[in-house]
Amino acid sequence: MSMAISILNGFTCNARIPRTWQTGTVCLIVESNRGPVLVDTGLGREDYSNPTWFTKLFRIITIMPFNPRQAAINQVQELGYRPEDFKHIILTHMHFDHCGGLPDFPHAKIHVVRKEYEAFIHQRGFLRAAYVQRHIAHKPDFVFYEETGDTWFEFSAIRITGFEPEIWFIPMPYHTPGLCGIAIKTEAGWHFHCGDAAADFRRHDIPEWSIRLILGPYMPRLREFATDHPEIRMTASHMFLDYFGPSAAANERQP
Ligand SMILES: [Zn+2]
Predict the structure, then answer these.
(1) What is the per-residue pLDDT across 184-228, written as a single tens digit (0 to 9) for each?
(2) How far apart are CA 195 and CA 113, in angstroms?
(3) 127-139, pLDDT tens digit by residue?
(4) CA of 35 to the centre of ligand 1 (A)
(5) How far is the CA of 102 from the centre of ligand 1 (A)?
(6) By three-state DSSP, how is residue 31 classified?
(7) CB atoms within 10 A of CB 94
C-alpha cells in the first residue's frame, strides 16, 4: 500500500498588515490501512453559505478570499474521493478554521485529545471564541485520547492506535488547551505537522513575540528540532500560500 500524504489548503486567510502575509491552512490526506484519513478540515460548506458571527468578524479583521472551493469536501471530490471514503478525521484542535468541515463528513469518526474536546464544549482558552458549537451539531462519533507517558523523539506523544502508517498526537498546548501536532511515518520518512504550535518554518520575518503570544513557546525548540532532523518534513498549519504550489497561490490571491 502506498502511504502517501497529500497536502491541501483548506482555508486561505491573509493579514491586512502586511498584505504580503497570505497564508493557507494545511489539511492532510493520509492513505492508511483504514482508508484515507483527513487531518483537519478547514472551513465547511455551511461556513460559506451561512457564516457564523465569528467568521464574519474574522473577515473584517483579516482578508479572506472566502472561496467555497476550498472546503475540504469539494477538494477531496475533485481528487476523486467520495465523502464516505473518509471514515476517520484527526484534529490538531477544534478552532473553526480547523474543524469547520466536520459536518461535511458525517460518516467519519473524529479523533481528538479529550482536553481539546472539553475546552471546545466548555469554551475554554484565551481564543475560545474560535470554538463554534455548530461544527459538531451533527453529533459525530468521537474517539478521545489522553497522555500515556509515551514519547516520539523527545516529545511527549500519544499513539493513535490501529493505523498504519504510524500516526501520533504530539501535545503542545497553549494556542488551545488540547492543541497537538501530528507525526506520521510515511515511506519517505516522518512528516511532523506542528499545527498551530508553529509558524511557517521557511519564514524568518514573523516577529518572535507574536509567535510566542498566539502560538506559544514551542517555536525555538521546533526550529532546533528541524535543524537536527533535516530528514523530517515539518509543516505548520498556516503555511504561506506559496507552500501550496503556484496554482493555489494564484487562485486564492486577492487583487
Ligand atoms: Zn489555525
Answers:
(1) 999 889 999 999 999 999 999 999 999 999 999 999 999 999 999
(2) 14
(3) 998 999 999 999 9
(4) 25
(5) 15
(6) strand
(7) 27
Phi, psi of 123 (to 5 degrees): 50, 60
Q: How many Å lie between the centroid of ligand 1 and the Cα of residue 80?
A: 27
- Separation of CA 238 and ligand 1 centre (Å): 7
Task: Work out the pLDDT band at 2, boundaries 50, 70, 90.
Answer: low
CA 25 to centroid of ligand 1, rounded, Å: 7
Whether the CA torsion 92, 95, 101, 107 is positive or negative: it is: positive
**Cα of 1 to ligand 1 centre, how many Å?**
31
pTM of the model: 0.94
Question: Residue 57 corresponds to which cell in the numbers above?
Answer: 468578524
| The one-letter amino acid at 200 | D
Burial class (CB in 10 A: 0-12, 13-18, 19+), 63: middle
Q: Are 200 and 240 in contact (CB under 8 A)?
A: yes
CA 95 to ligand 1 center in whole angstroms? 7
Q: Which residues of 152-187 are buried (b: 16+ CB within 10 A; e: fewer)?
A: beebebbebeebebbbbbbbbbbbbbbbbbbbbbbe
* H-type alpha helices, the chain: 45-49, 53-61, 72-78, 96-99, 114-121, 208-215, 219-228, 246-252
Report whether pLDDT(79) > 50. yes
Helix (H) or strand (E) holding 27: strand 26-32
